[in-house]
Write a structure and sequence with these properties.
The protein is built from 11 helices and 13 strands. By secondary structure, it is an alpha/beta fold.
Length: 333
């Protein structure tokens, strides 16, 4: 591993992530691993560490291996917010068939996560960028209320919270700037099968930007001009009632071993880049989407954090340039 990109910056903005650290057991058509390092906040933190300083708030049990804490430390992740409680660490067991876009959950053991109450260390409360990973939306909001005026707040969620705590989730969405979810969750949250109509409904709930993860089909972004703007203000030349729409492909890979954590790695690369450059204009968000997709493309090349752990800056930047070449074409003359 080489030094993260963030070390080349003269001034670092801080990035806080609150989410899960887990021990995963995963089976794909290409192999199987037992009780390896996983969790949404773990993948996010390692991915983001290539761009900026990451502060992690999470909970683990007494059984959490020291080697995993050392891995996070090697990547410069600030662990003052890591709570170690009596009991067992959160565990997830899943299986993928040849459709690698969908995981089948075989077992979930919440363990210490069941009573997790995130406590934000005092030195974390003035962070500039916040990512609320996939946890109870009420907890997401409790975390946010402990932070002093962040520049940007993004969050993730999942079908479980959409189905079981829709009102709490909608209250959280009123307080975030960016929502990052997959296409199935987009349709479920909006109760709309058409992805474009679904995006419009979700943007009306509060976020000014919706980023839809579509697995091997890439990423879609829908963005409106600002919080509270009416959709009647159609941008010239756009066929949709949003200020902009952006699509990025997935990087074409010959070898995909484990898609676990790909979405979290995307979010880490995305938020890490925004924090690094400290800009949130549309062009920068588009660049961040491609950086997020770039990091995620490395993540799926091996199980757990193995590939991200040994990623180099040179590999990351080279693939970013290859991503740009994928969609580069000349204007019609």
């Amino acid at each position: 591993m080489t030094f993260p990109l963030c070390l080349f910056a003269l001034f670092l903005m801080s990035l806080l992530v609150v989410g899960t650290v887990a021990l995963d057991t995963v089976k794909t058509p290409f192999g199987e691993v037992e009780e390896v390092l996983g969790g949404s906040a773990t993948y996010f933190s390692i991915a983001a560490s290539y761009f900026t300083e990451v502060r992690l708030v999470t909970v683990v049990g007494e059984d959490f291996p020291q080697e995993h804490i050392q891995l996070l430390g090697r990547h410069g992740v600030d662990l003052k917010g890591l709570q170690q409680e009596k009991g067992r660490t959160f565990r997830w067991k899943g299986q993928y068939d040849y459709n690698l876009n969908e995981a089948r959950t075989l077992d979930t053991q919440l363990n210490v996560l069941q009573s997790f109450k995130p406590q934000i260390p005092e030195e974390y409360k003035k962070v500039d960028y916040v990512f609320l990973a996939n946890i109870d939306p009420d907890l997401q909001r409790e975390v946010l209320h402990q932070i002093e005026r962040p520049k940007l707040v993004a969050c993730d969620t999942m079908n479980f919270w959409i189905q079981n705590k829709p009102d709490a989730l909608k209250r959280t969405l009123k307080e975030v700037d960016i929502l990052i979810i997959n296409d199935g969750e987009t349709r479920q949250l909006a109760q709309e099968p058409n992805i474009v109509k679904a995006a419009r409904k979700i943007l009306a709930l509060g976020p000014n930007t919706l980023i839809i993860k579509r697995g091997e089909y890439g990423v879609l972004m829908f963005k409106r001009r600002g919080r509270g703007e009416e959709f009647s203000s159609r941008a010239p030349g756009l066929p949709l009632p949003h200020s902009s729409v952006f699509a990025a492909p997935a990087y074409p890979l010959e070898f995909v071993f484990d898609p676990t954590g790909a979405g979290d790695s995307f979010a880490g690369g995305f938020m890490g880049y925004l924090s690094k450059v400290d800009r949130i204009d549309e062009q920068t968000i588009r660049q961040a989407i491609v950086f997020g997709s770039t990091v995620a493309s490395f993540n799926v090349e091996d199980f757990s954090l193995r590939r991200l752990d040994k990623l180099t800056n040179e590999e990351l930047l080279a693939r970013f340039r290859e991503f740009k070449a994928l969609v580069d074409f000349d204007q019609i003359r």
